[in-house]
Amino acid sequence: MWRNLPVVRVAAMIPMAATAALLATAMPAAAGESAQAPPLLAGIMPKNTDEQYELSFWESIKNSNYAADYEAYLKQYPNGRFAGLAKARLERLAGSAPAPKAQAPAPPPRAGATASGQAARAPAPATASAPPAKAAPAAPAAARPSAPAPAPTPAPAPAAPRAGSAGDGVVSTTLRTAEIRDCPACPALVTVPAGSFTMGSSASDPAEKPPHQVSIAQPFAIGRYEVTVEQWNACADAGGCQRIPTVADSAKNAPVRDVSWDDAQQYVAWLSKTTGKSYRLPTEAEWEYAARGGSATAYWWGDQMRKGNANCKDCGDPWNQDAPVPVGSFAANPYGLHDVNGSVWEWVADCWHSSYKGAPTDGRAWNENACGARVIRGGSWREGASYMVSSTRFKYSPSVRQSQNGFRVARDMK
To answer: Any idea where the Sulfatase-modifying factor enzyme-like domain is (predicted)?
Structure first.
């Protein structure tokens, strides 16, 4: 299951020729780096192997200008085949980077447990890891007490969807439910009704199998948009979250990114404390149910990609390879959610499992005590159309920051 950034699906086997091509494209032209080229693998490489995940990870960051992406690779693969190249890139970036700005100290870990019931830990230093690449559908802490902060300024309204942005002349019919906003700087929420759906897909990626029926017994609220830079900064201003230096120049209504699962836990803890409501990350089942918007097709709008429905490199304008566009730039799905396809990968509450065998059928988070990886959903603006399908999923270490990862929030309606 891999893709361009996180590509998490591919043909069941990857022949030597394909592996060689990946390695060849990964070799930089910069002088002095070619000597670090790793040897080619022999034979064929089944998908979901550690070797293929590493190749896909490198492929997704090889042209990055963010030191954090290479730091993430080295954290994940300290003795990896591209470790020498990653270190060389870091040295080159360090030599050309301006002096870093002062950064607020990290909040200490919260006493007690995270939303998943595990002991909270302080977020790791800014690092990133990239999910493996996906072929036509394939596989890729808590708030610190602080002195009263000034009242946050209201977040600007996200960019309105363009007329007819459902693509190919088709305009989405959105069930516009009443919007909930629990504080001026809080994310706007919409209510998703209770119901049942088929979760997963039998199309290609083993991690999305077996398709299974899930029943969501109670309505829940979920972010209409992904959490934005301005909303994150309101938490940082109040001392509840860390500053994210890599998005300092981003638009206020751009989705916040380069945040870890642990960082997202800080944000929902701060929202809960600020509003008195129980904010959390959506469960994986809730996320897919909401993203599908009542559909059973590959995308919420049908089985074929239509340009203008998602922020991805094959999905039409507006698109910029360097960063996602402001939230709400594309049409909402029938439940009123924007950007569930593309934009940024979104953290959910669940531990990663390599298939849905034994998954709960009631919509709750699938967690366990030793959770080494958390699930991300939805693809990002750097991936192609095959990553935009509603069933797309991948994993990251909860402490890892990656420049394509963000999140949206949820809370119970009780």
So the answer is: 186-411
